[in-house]
Amino acid sequence: MRSTRKILFGTTILAGVLAAAAPSFAQTQSSTPASSESTTDVEEIVVTGSRIRRDPTTAPTPLIQVSREALLETGQTTVIDYLATIPALSNSQVPSDTTGNALGALGLSLPNLRSLGAGRTLTLVDGRRHVGSQTGSLAVDVDTIPRLLIQNIEIVTGGASSVYGADAVSGVLNFVLRKDFEGLEVDGNYGIINKGGDETTKRISILGGVNLLDDRLNVYGFGEYEDIEDVNAESIEWLGKAWGLVGNDADPTTVGLTSDGIYDAVLYRDLRQLQILRGGQLTIANGVRPDPTLNPNVPNVATSSNCLAANGPLTADCYNPRPGLTYVFDENGNARLADFGGRVANTGRFQGTHIGGDGENPALFNRESYFPQSRSQRYQTGLNFKLTPDINLHAEYKYVYEESEQNGGPAFADVYFTNSYSLAQQQRPVLNARTSSPTAFLSRLDNAFLPANVLAQIQGNVVQPYGTSTATAPGAPLAQFNAPWARYTAWSRDRIQENTRELNRFVVSADGTHDGFGFVKDISWDIGYTHGEVENQNTEYPVDGLRYAFALDAVRDTAGVLGTPNAIVCRVKLLTANGATIANQNTGAAAGSAGALTASSPEVAECQPYNIFGEGAASQEAINYITAKTGVDEKNTQDSAVASISATVGDYWGAGPIGVALGAEYRRQETTGTGRTRTAEGRWLLSNIGDDWAPGAEYETKEVFAELAVPLFRESFLGYYAELSGSYRYSDYTTTGGDDVYGINLVYRPVPELAFKSSFNTSTRAPDLSERFGPRVQTFASITDPCDAQVIANLSDRTIANQRIANCSTQAASLGLGGVFNFSDPTATNAFRPVYSSSVSGALAGNTNLKPETSESFTFSVVYQPPIAPGLSLVLDYYEIEIKDLLSTVTGQTSANLCVNGPTLNDVFCDVITRSAVDLPAPNDDRFKITDFLQASFNFAKRTTRGLDFNVNYAADLADITPWSLGRINYSLRGTWLIEQKQFNNISNPNDFTELSSSLYYPRVRMTSSLSYSPNDKFTATWIVDWQTAQDIVQRRDAINNPDSRPAEYFDTGNFARHDLQFRYAMREDLDLRFGVTNVTNAEQAPWLGTTLYSNFDPYGRRFNIGFNYRPW
Question: In what residue span(s) does the TonB-dependent receptor-like beta-barrel domain sit (predicted)?
Fold first, then answer.
């Protein structure tokens, strides 16, 4: 039995409420005042944020609503792109955030309330849990929820764990679906995604439903197909302008001088870089004279890493691009000296940034995807059966299939050409240690593809080296030396990534009502079971490092040993044909040992010579030879059962009945899967690998919960209405044990038109499966070795420096290297000066010792609907959230530092850093170098945020406020003032924080306004403005010590506004047409942000969309 009660509404105020629910825009739930003029029945319902049925005007927590019409009419490509325009959700993960090198996450659309992380936002469908699409996570891909089935989205912007369980730390998104749909509805949309290209998005959705058995049974079916085309860098118009700040001047190093009045950075357009040519560039060894005192634009370099004969041909500082020494190549591999155009980068040793000439736009070079291509099929069917007048049965099944693809840009490597090493070194041509990525390779000057003009210059090359500068003089010239060395910056095949996801979800439930028993009245109950599965398959096509090394080291078979005289062949084939064995760097087997490669080994026998010089010069056979295929197959499984009952237990003092709700929940989460290590099959790839998920990556939780809502008074001398409510939940996890949370809410309405709401909630977030059980997945990091003698010598804190010297010596001795290295004097002959030719390979992994995060949140809201302004409502929501024991990753660099920074070795961090005890057969000394590290999460961080949401809604019939009947207007303004957003991530100093408010992605104020005009019932035009304040790039206080760092206008982004127009026309009663223009003014991010894409500034320019909604019956 449905319970209703009379609430007095003024007719003019009712118009304001209807306006607040206008479908053109997401609105904050407003309270509805009473009036003595007329009455309206208001049905009590369950509103997101509570399980107690109540009048929605007394909802205890701040609530934002988004309608189905808003989602269908928006010009945004996806549901999440629209939701991200809501200030409280502005840092949600949109598809463009998932490109680059993210693996297995292509196209995932994850809501992120308050910018506290997608894993701290709970997403529900009809109040029930939904399986997560990100492996090992509960984060829900909201684009898997059928758009046409959505009735509205209710967003609670505050902690709600006591009502809905763990993970509702920053709030809840509840997707409320349409019920008992009868008829047929077809909705279609076609849109341009990006102004600079012709990429499109196409969607067709069909929903049909029928009522049977005297309307007791409703059966519905839904199907949708969506095709979103790939947007790559070349298609984005503003990226082609190649804006960027480049180094213009370095300030003097003389004591007392911090600036010289010349801007350190200057803005240029049409920048090019020679270092990143698709066809590669080769630079012959050279030296640069350091003079940081008299010419600070050229900095000093430590002697051990300068271009000196003693440092050898692998010294990176020998290969700064220089006119007359740098070559570029055409598609046939022919070489010519590079055209440097007009040099604009005046600082540092690198001279490859310029305008004009042979370089490439650094933003377009990768040709990578910025918006991934995707094709999606979504289906859902269900039934609703009224078993009795008071008991309803429900069942639904959903299937989603998604395919995504992206280009992550080409694989990169450095190839050194030199005869400095013996021919035997060519038997292990990958220069990296096996524990790092294979990005440094060796070939000799007899390489068959090396052009003759380049070879001649290399052979005659002489380097003028320089010593270290002094306080009064530049680096002195040293003795010249012959340096027949060159380094080629190589870019091989593109890193293509393919992703498929299949989602299956089943829900069965029953609910009902009962008049009650005795003093227990208005009983409502619900019981349901949900099962969900998401299977994720990700495929990559990386470069096989060892095969690449063999293929690029091509020579001429002058004697025809392999059959054809003077044919170009792989050197490795000639070596093995003459009886040599080749080191198998995949397994570590040395040349001449068991397991070494021979002529019959596939790596050798299948080798095809690869011409690395020039884009398109390599044959398809060579490309096929170096290309590997790896993949993962992972699966999330969720089982959830919830039972709840709510009722009232009497009105004892005339304020209204007391509401109560009780319930229990069981949930099980599991993740299984195979990693890339399995498909890599031991090969050394230019990509990362990862282990399988270990058995037992799962948890179960059993929970009980309760709510109580007590009306305090109604229409008394204390005010119009007040209610105190509370909620409590106890959870018992098989991984982290028992925990409880609670919430307290107060609603006070002194007069019908004004309401105050306040809430305090505690919440928890249990570590998800990836954080706790995630398998080792390879990652790479550029680590500055804390034991490097030069690094130690440069430390200003001599206490830490002395502790590092002692700890590094102790650690070296534990590896049998006691007394081998000097850690205190960088000029000593045995100084520890490690050379890392590439980034260090490490691993990301879970941590089974994690405990839950805990949080506290406070909200205070004011809702006002002034009687003197019918149709106007004002809402202010203040919020504070603090998360403690927050899970945060400790990087390899941090662990390496903390291992040796203290009075003694810190075993917690030393245990995750691996150093080599042996010297591998490579040009550099590998002893004591970092060869591996482990990055895992720990409960050490904290987050705090506070701010003010504001919402203004106004609706009016123009005939009521003007002498003419001109139609109707609806206006809404919704925004957030971010007062504070602090990150406490320093594990060494828990009180150290980074303030994010007003920094990039975190505008101090962001607001969205919507103005709709309907001259009649057929046509509506809507103007939407998304506006955000300037965000700091450089803090102005930092310029006190360096006032000429850049022009003042480049310190922040400037304010940003995007204007959208939407038009809807009801051609017939059963057919609506719509048209939209997104970013009408073609607003772009500030040029001085360079070529980094910031999604909150709308990178895609002016674009158009059209659509229709057809309802034949």
Answer: 522-1080
